[in-house]
Amino acid sequence: MGPGPYIGFESFYKPGTATFPQNFSVKLYPFVVGTEFKFQLHLGGLSMDRSRIIFITGATSGIGAACTTFFSNNGWKVYGGSRRITKETITPEGAVLFPLDVTKPDSVSAIVKTILDREKRLDVVLNNAGFGIGGPLETTSLEEAKSQFETNFFGVHLVNQAVLPYFRKQGSGRIVIVGSIGGRIGLPFQGMYSATKF
C-alpha cells in the first residue's frame, strides 16, 4: 500500500468473493480479519500533517459517518451534509453537519457558500452521498431509477460544479468520489446501482 491516510471499514463480503483494482487515486484495499473482509480507504496520499477543511456528503451513515469521525479525530475541520439532518448540528467530535440534498442545486450551493464564508477556504470534498435499490430491472420503476441517478450520479456532478470555481480561484483542492465494485462489474439485482457507479 502507498502512503496514508487509511480508514478501516467493515464489509459484508467474505474473503475471496471479490477483487479490487489497485490503480485508482482513491483505493479500497481488502484485508482479512477472521472471516470478514475489512477495507482501508486510501485518499491518494493526502498528507495529514496539517489541519484541513473537508466537506463530506452523506455524512451521517456508513462510509460518510466513518470519514466524518476519522477526520475530526485527526484535527481536520469537518463539514458534513445529509438528508437525515434537519438543522445545523455539531457531533461529539466537533464536525458540523447541515441538512443537504445533493439533488437540489440550491441546497448544495448554500452549504458550500456557508463553509467558504466561515473558513475562507475548502481543501477537500468527499462525494459519498448515495443509495442502492435491489431487485430485477424489470420491476424497477422509472421513478426509482431516476431517483438513484439523481443522487448517485448527478448529485456528484452538482457538488463538483459548486466547488470547482473556488478550487480554481484558491489554486488548490481535491475531489474524492466514493466508488463501488459495482462500478467495475455489474452486480446481480443491483443493475441501476451499478449503472450509477460505472
Description:
This protein has 198 residues and is an alpha/beta fold. Helix content is 32%, strand content 23%. It is built from four helices and nine strands, in the order E-E-E-E-H-E-E-E-H-E-H-E-H. The strands form two sheets. The protein has a six-stranded mixed beta sheet with strand order 6-7-5-4-8-9, sandwiched between helices. The longest helix is centred in the C-terminal third of the chain and has 29 residues. It is globular and about 50 Å long. The two termini are 24 Å apart.
Question: What are the key terms here?
Answer:
disordered N terminus; 32% helix; alpha/beta; 9 strands; six-stranded mixed sheet; 4 helices
Quick overview:
The chain has 198 residues and is of the alpha/beta class. Helix content is 32%, strand content 23%. It has helices spanning 62-73, 105-119, 142-170, 191-197; strands spanning 6-10, 26-33, 36-43, 53-57, 77-82, 89-90, 96-99, 124-127, 174-177.
Order of adjacent strands in the largest pleated sheet: 6-7-5-4-8-9
The fraction of residues in strands falls at 15-25%
Poorly predicted runs are 1-41
Helix share of residues? Answer: 25-40%
Q: What is the strand tally?
A: 9
- Structural class comes to alpha/beta
Mean pLDDT value: 80
- Choose one word for the global shape: globular
Order of helices and strands: EEEEHEEEHEHEH
**Main beta-sheet strand count, sense and barrel state:** 6 strands, mixed
Spatial separation of the terminal alpha carbons: 24 Å
Helix segment tally: 4
How large, in whole angstroms, is the Cα Rg? 17 Å
